[in-house]
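Data card: per-record layout.
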Amino acid sequence: MNPPIEGICFKYSDNIDTDVIIPARYLNTSDENELASHCLEDLDRDFAKEVKEGDVIVAGENFGCGSSREHAPIAIKASGISIVIAKSFARIFFRNAINIGLPILEHPVLADECDKGDRIRVDLNKGIVTNLTKNKEYTCTRFPEEINKLIQAGGLVEYTKQKLGVKNEI
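The structure for this 170-residue chain is written out next.
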């Protein structure tokens, strides 16, 4: 079971591409904290300073379009964002997010009915998103159980290690 997610909404429009999520000039590092410090900086200069652990991104259509870099969902997750909810996702971003254990949900109207700063609660187990600020509830399609397990494990690599019984070694 996934624990409920609750955080403040950071709201963005349509067609937020991977170059906006993490600009190409920072792709020379794989350090998650460094990527997080530059997440969305060309779109929202204050994002990295304002985001807190558990916060939520809500966006319009085609979130994560552009190149297939997995740095984009890594930067988002490392910044503290607990989930991204959008009207739709670019296919490769969708899969990359799941592979690194970043929950994402699609909803056709949530982005139209919430504002930056709204408090959002998400129950992934029930597929329920609640805008606590506006007292509105939305139903989303739940992930299949195997995808839930992958997200709970922290992504595909950690899930595979668990399935194979591999211990993390430093």
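Known properties of this structure: Residues 91-100 form the longest helix (10 residues). The mean pLDDT is 94.

See the next section for split statistics.
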